[in-house]
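Your task
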Amino acid sequence: MTTATLDRSMQQTPATSVTAMAAPTPTTNAVSKTAVLVGLCFVAATFTFAIGNALIRSSFSSATAHDSLIAGVFLLGFCGLAVAANGAAMRQILASHTPIRSRAYFAMRVTECLILLAVGMYLLASHAQWNAYVLAVYAISGGAGFVLSSALLTSRIVPRNLSMLGIIGYPVFLVGSILAMFNLIDITHGAGMLALVPGGLFELILPIWLFTKGFTFHQIEG
């Protein structure tokens, strides 16, 4: 009887170990650091894109055009790296909750990074003004933001109201970007900028939440 019990225990132990190894869960400390990283990536991407784009625009009407252009392109490249790092970090967090959307978000952020790098190379090589690149960046960023918001709503690792702000805001942002591509509105000036407000609020509030509260640990570990 004792021998049979031991045999069954030995047969069950490897299976349990394999299951545990196949589905590792992030530790609280690791998740906390990732929350801060994601918040920093959002803040860095927002400010480097805004400043970089402003420098690039001013370079075509400035006496120090070359220096402004180089600085602006450098900041666009930094923005690209920030969004790619954001995608990689969120993929790690969301993989156990929404695996397809976590991969989609990562792929879209990498695409955004490549677009920004390509734009920078084009501007440096051509020295030609091309303001429309902003709309392409906005379009892919809006799509990525919507995927992230829906994944956050499903996983419940941030408050529902915050996720809903992104779910509402990013489609508005995306539609505004598409309309701007057809010159129906201008989202860089005047009333058209209202299309940026909901998504912008999401990208402002989310980092603050992540810095102060982080992700909901027990739901990630459960």
Observations:
- Residues 1-25, 218-222 have pLDDT under 50 and may be disordered.
